[in-house]
Amino acid sequence: MISKRTVLIWILILLVATTGILIGRLTVTSVSAEGEGYEELKTFTEVMSMVKKHYVEEVKSKDLVYGAIKGMLNSLDPHSTFMTPEGYKEMQVDTKGEFGGIGIQIGVKDGMLTVIAPIEDTPAYKAGIKAGDKIIKINTESTKDMTLHDAVSKMRGAPKTPVTITILREGWKETKDFTIIRDIIKIKSVKSKVLENNIGYVKINQFQEQTASDLSAALKKLGDEKINALVLDLRNNPGGLLNSAIDVSGRFLPKGKLVVYTKTKAGERTEFFTEENSYFTQPIIVLVNQGSASASEIVAGALKDWNRAVILGIQTFGKGSVQTVIPLTDGSGLRLTTAKYYTPKGKSIQSTGITPDIVVKLEAKNGAKEHPVVREKDLERHLKNDQTDTKPEETETAPIEVDEKDDIQLQRAIDILKTWNVFKELPKAS
After folding, report:
1. Quick one: 361 and 376 in the same domain?
2. Residue 332 falls within a domain, yes or no?
3. How many domains does the chain have?
4. How far is CA 40 from the centre of its chain?
5. What is the pLDDT of residues 39-85, one digit of tens each?
6. Residue 5 belongs to a domain
7. How many other CB atoms sit within 10 Å of the CB of residue 10?
8. If we measure between CA atoms, which residue out of 223, 229, 216, 160 comes closest to residue 190?
9. What is the pLDDT averaged over residues 242-262?
10. What residue ranges in 121-198 does DSSP mark as E strands?
11. Does 16 fall in a domain?
12. Which partner from 21, 211, 292, 415 sits 20 to 30 angstroms from 205, CA to CA?
């Protein structure tokens, strides 16, 4: 019998992607190897014994066990996975926002490994990989039945080394090979500038360890330039660290405001509050789209529920489940979905996402191509929303690329803030 012990684990909310981890802490007690369901392990040991004894080639016990664990977790939701020791180390590197790879977010749709979005200014982005592309092979190895974690591991590697991915794109009759040279994927999480009429613009690409402090620096710089309103762009942001999401929310909300809470199957609730004393007080419009996930949805949901910002764009990704990562004794790790998270008003966004206050859809201009939109509800084995049924919708598409001059979501936000400022400056009626 395995003795009971207390272990420290990490709560993670992970987009099915190369990045996108939200981290908090939880203490649990390991379970006994005896009890309900464990009698079925007898069948497993029988099969393992037969394979070891009679299989045509020599196989390692660890390979069989790892394969069985992967298969078991693969029968659950798309975010529960097993990580080898190497994979567990990679996951820890992810939180730093820097790793060797090609720079794409991936998921599984219709049984096929699918690109959710390429990360801007990365090798994959520059090579022409598009959202909605189906990855058929990685270095000639078929991706059929390949786990997301294994796919990510195969595409990652040392900088300056090549990886070839075979792509099938909608409208293509044949696949095409893309040989991409890996590089250090170091995502600059915060970009800022001043738009017309003294309107500030901040884009957060990912929630990393330094994002909140980088945001503070950007807001200070914009403040020095006398901005009177802000556009916060969270489009195509796959998520990131939970602590970063809380801290970013604290730059726009007063101290002590509930940002998000998580709830387990047993009903255990954990709440997360803002801690900053000073915060940005000017009007805010938050831009979101189908690629805004996880931490992005936490921030957008908090600002919406507290009536702190107007949310503009289209429905977000809908990633609202919590993964607990448990380190195992051999250096491997288990990522298991253990809870769901909720906005301050108690809304679950799992498989539904955040609904914008103002819906504005981007349109393809001059015959530009579009790609099918992939959201949480499109991923196989996704968890259902416990508050509402997710109704099937017609296939939605979005432009592959949009020039800034055709970015009607941003332009609409600017127009609204201009009007906002006009009304604010009107003299009061006497």
Report:
1. yes
2. no
3. 2
4. 35
5. 778 888 899 999 999 999 999 999 999 999 999 998 999 889 898 88
6. no
7. 21
8. 216
9. 95
10. 134-138, 141-142, 162-168, 176-181, 183-186, 190-194
11. no
12. 415
Provide the residue range defining the domain that includes 193. Answer: 187-321+341-425
pLDDT tens figures, 363-419: 877 666 777 888 888 888 889 888 876 665 666 888 766 777 889 999 999 999 999
Residues 104, 230: one domain? no
In a domain, 381, yes or no: yes
Asked whether residue 175 falls in the same domain as residue 284, the answer is: no
Q: Are residues 201 and 261 in the same domain?
A: yes
Dihedral sign of CA atoms 347, 350, 351, 357 in order: positive
What contacts 20, CB < 8 A, 6 or more positions away? Answer: 13, 14, 105, 206, 238, 239, 240, 293, 294, 295, 319
CA 72 – CA 82 distance, rounded (Å)? 9
Q: Which of the listed residues 133, 156, 185 is the one where a domain comes to its end? A: 185
Crossing angle between the packed helical segments 295-305 and 242-250, to the nearest 10 degrees: 30
**Could you tell me how many residues make up the chain?**
430
pLDDT beyond 90 at 422: no
pLDDT, tens only, 140-192: 999 988 888 789 889 988 889 999 999 999 889 999 999 999 998 877 789 99
Query: What's the CATH code of the domain at 197?
Result: 3.90.226.10
- The pLDDT assigned to 36 comes to 57
What per-residue confidence (pLDDT) applies to 24?
Answer: 39
Annotated catalytic residues are 294, 305, 319
- Residues 222 and 164: their CA atoms lie apart, in Å, by 42
| Co-location of 130 and 193 in the same domain | no
Phi, psi of 273, rounded to the nearest 5 degrees:
-120, 155
Query: Quick one: pLDDT band at residue 117, thresholds 50, 70, 90?
Result: confident
Domain CATH number, residue 111: 2.30.42.10
More confident residue, 341 or 121: 341
Do 221 and 181 belong to one domain? no
Claim to verify: residue 128 and residue 235 sit in the same structural domain: no
- Print the SS3 string covering 360-391: CCCCCCCCCCEEECCCHHHECCCCCCCCCCCC
Residue with tokens 């990704």: 317
